[in-house]
Specification:
alpha/beta, Rossmann fold, six-stranded mixed sheet, four-stranded mixed sheet, 15 strands
């Protein structure tokens, strides 16, 4: 068993290459090799292999109790691996948004105070973080009065305040409505693009992943399957885990529009005309998926700038979460 920082020379890339381009060895932030966690005589998760590189987004999915949060905590050193190897880049700085936050909600707590619960921040660090996540106007607001989206943005601001190399997001869109999810995923993408940090994202929603994800890892006590969202969504292991219905209602967003969806629901076409919906004559549709049938538009496509992929059919208001 090995669980220690490693030098740049020791860090060897593993797994699929990122769509962000070829990453050199020095860009590897965390690497797990046949890693596992054991509690009370049984393994919660074992045989885990993956790496996270700078600028890369890795998403963990799987049913409840599959080891997603445990794996993330093992990767960053909160839990020590009981078998296998975990290597982290020397001096790695981690920002963490937990699934649950232990706060006494009966006590007054402002966003500004929340930002410094894990340690002091300079005024510049604090302001840069809240401005980056759009909550600068809420610094004096009590967290108990925030909406779900505002609270998640405040937690994200706290996580990026110290300019981490790796950002770990455990269910970052919990308590947020569908439109809020889209906005938060877009914000996460922006943070990645601006800072170049690696991102380990844990999704407890079995049906969607962030569209910018480089690698999806499906866990169920072990790694069931891995790859790009498209590869995982077609994997027999994924379909076996989530049922045959996933194959029938599967929708992977993999096309480009020649039109723009307006705020009022109408569609602006490349020729300047406006219609009630999009139509086959728009062109530039590169479809490699089944119809989502969720009413986003008559051609069955999500909006072109929507930053999520559906790995299974669902309705935004009624999809199951675990």
């Amino acid at each position: 068993m090995l669980d220690r920082p490693m030098s740049d020379k020791e860090m060897v890339p593993q797994g699929a290459a990122s769509t962000r381009g070829a990453f050199e060895a020095r860009d590897v932030l965390v690497s797990l090799s046949q890693a596992g966690i054991r509690r009370q005589g049984r393994f919660l998760v074992r045989g885990v292999d993956f790496s996270i590189r700078r600028g890369e987004i890795v998403t963990l999915i799987g049913p409840n109790g599959s080891g997603k949060s445990t794996t993330a905590k093992m990767a960053i050193g909160v839990y020590r691996a009981d078998e296998g190897k975990v290597a982290r880049k020397a001096g790695l700085k981690v920002g963490y948004v937990p699934q649950k936050l232990a706060i006494d909600w009966t006590l007054p707590l402002t966003v500004e105070r929340l930002m410094t619960l894990t340690g002091p921040l300079s005024r510049r660090e604090l302001l840069d973080a809240v401005e980056a996540t759009g909550v600068q106007h809420l610094l004096k607001a009590e967290v108990q009065r925030l909406s779900g989206g505002e609270f998640q943005r405040a937690l994200l601001a706290r996580a990026i305040a110290r300019r981490p190399d790796l950002l770990v997001l455990d269910e970052p869109v919990q308590g947020v409505d569908f439109n809020g999810e889209i906005a938060l995923y877009d914000l996460i993408k922006t943070i990645r693009n601006r800072t170049g940090c690696g991102i380990l994202l844990i999704s407890h929603d079995l049906h969607i992943v962030m569209a910018e994800t480089d690698t999806v890892i499906c866990l169920n006590g072990h790694v069931c399957c891995r790859g790009t969202p498209e590869v995982v969504s077609r994997s027999p292991e994924y379909l076996k885990l989530f049922g045959a219905r996933a194959a029938q209602t599967l929708a992977v967003y993999s096309h480009h529009h020649d039109h723009t969806h307006l705020p009022d629901g109408r569609v602006l076409h490349a020729d300047g005309t406006v219609t009630a919906d999009c139509h086959p004559g728009d062109g530039h549709h590169d479809d490699a998926h089944h119809d989502v049938g969720d009413g986003t538009c008559s051609c069955g496509h999500p909006h072109p700038d929507q930053p999520i992929l559906r790995l299974n059919g669902y309705t935004p208001e009624g999809r199951p979460r675990v």
